[in-house]
Amino acid sequence: MLPGFLARAVEVLLGREGRSLHLKAAGGATAVLAVAMLLGSWAVVDAEQGAPRANLKTYPQALWWSIETATTVGYGDFYPVTLGGRLIGAVMMVVGITTYGMVTAALATWFVGREQKRRHHLAHAARELSEETAHALHERFDRLERMMAGRSEER
Predict the structure, then answer these.
(1) I want to staple 66 with a disulfide (CB 3.0 to 4.6 A). Which of 37, 89, 114, 145 is the partner?
(2) DSSP 3-state helix, strand, coil percentages of the chain (rounded to 5)?
């Protein structure tokens, strides 16, 4: 059940053709983070099993610890005491920091892209307006010239 759900979630995150590269990367990193948290929690419980002063003894405790570690909150209520557990913790930190950096970059790119589109539309509208204004001014000048030419012929 769970592997099928994960496969479908990864397909939804990465499989869209129209989705931009930065969103695909952020989605992929988020999927990797979720898998790392689930597997890391299991691995740290296994690594800490039977160690003196171990406080990561159950999967729910380890899952909470993996969330704390990946988000770099680190309340200190749970922590690994073995070398293997600490190495797993280091991997969790790197994956978490990388993921949140990619998600932040994707959001920033989205905001910048929206602003660029807005400015492009404004510039296009200003060009059209200036062309229309120039055309209207030319017509007025032509009309004034014709009027002035007509008055000078009357004299």
Answers:
(1) 37
(2) 80, 0, 20
* φ, ψ for residue 10, nearest 5 deg: -65, -40
Quote the pLDDT of residue 59. 94
Domains of the chain: 2-116 (1.10.287.70)
Instruction: For residue 136, report the phi and psi dihedrals to the nearest 5 degrees.
Output: -65, -40
Spatial CA neighbour of 47 closest among 78, 76, 95, 83: 83
Q: Which of 25-39, 85-99, 141-155 has the largest mean confidence?
A: 85-99
Compute the residue count for the chain: 155
C-alpha distance from residue 70 to each of 46, 73, 107 (Å): 19, 8, 19
Give the per-residue pLDDT at 142.
Answer: 87
Average pLDDT, the chain: 85
The amino acid at 110: W
